[in-house]
Amino acid sequence: MESDDEKFGPLLPGFVQIEPPYCYRCPHEKSGYPECDLPCAQALDERIRSEGPQTVAAFILEPIMGAYGITAPPEAYYRAVGEICRKQGILFIADEVTTGFGRTVKLFVSEDWTPAPDILCLSKAISSGYLPLAATLATEAIYQRFLGEGNQFKHGSTANGHPVCAAVGLRNIDILVNERLPENAASKMG
User: Which of 71, 113, 118, 143 has the smallest number of CB atoms closer than 10 Å to its CB?
Assistant: First the structure.
């Protein structure tokens, strides 16, 4: 079987990965959670230590992996990797581009995580897919770091600051929240 490097490589240098938390076909050859001790989370700690925590900026995870067949790890995984990130001084980033804004019967998969992610990456459902729109949410500490002259994160994108897209996104969020659409979806699931 070809490795990812063989299929898609070479990958951008400086990025390292760990095996995904996939209980059905556990890459750590365990029988599944809760019988295992989350070796998938322990792999993050081991990788950070082997790379050197001072060289690792962040851990990015997709809460429900689409490329693996809409696969969600056990809830304990999120807590474990979040705690590892805190202990190691690494930013914890949740990529909720696919899962955010009620697509999983919660507004965000990560809304109840402890510890909470430092950064959320959002898109797609923020405008119900009608217009291109994305957002990045960060903790107050990260926000404060970029305040002030010369501290801005100077970056742009194709649909950056488009008022119509932003207006659609705000209205869509109003509908999702005010009509309690995630809660309604949850009630239909039994």
Answer: 143
Query: Residue 2: pLDDT above 90?
Result: no
Amino acid at 10: P
Domain count, the chain: 1
Distance CA 136, CA 113 (A): 18
Question: CA-to-CA distance for 124 and 68, rounded, in angstroms?
Answer: 19
- Write out the residue range of the structural domain in which residue 39 sits: 4-188
d(CA 57, CA 131): 32
12's tokens: 């951008």
Q: What is the pLDDT of residues 11-41, one digit of tens each?
A: 778 888 999 898 888 888 888 888 899 999 9
Find the CATH number of the domain harbouring 169. Answer: 3.40.640.10
- When pLDDT is averaged across residues 164-171 and rounded to a whole number, the result is 94
Give the Cα separation of 134 and 186 in Å (integer). 25
Side-chain-facing half-sphere of 180: CA atoms under 13 Å: 5
